[in-house]
Amino acid sequence: IWSAFCSIATTSLWMARNGNVHRQELVTVHQGKTQIWKITLRQLQAVTHRDSRSTE
Prior knowledge:
56 residues
């Protein structure tokens, strides 16, 4: 799980950075952490859903 989180977090940070640079938005640390957690949980739920279907 840790390696998956690290991969998701890194990708999320780059996506957020690119979007914020192009829109010239400022993001607080709290907003950044919240965004990363939302994306991470969504990805883990997708993997769990996929794995549960493959075992049936």
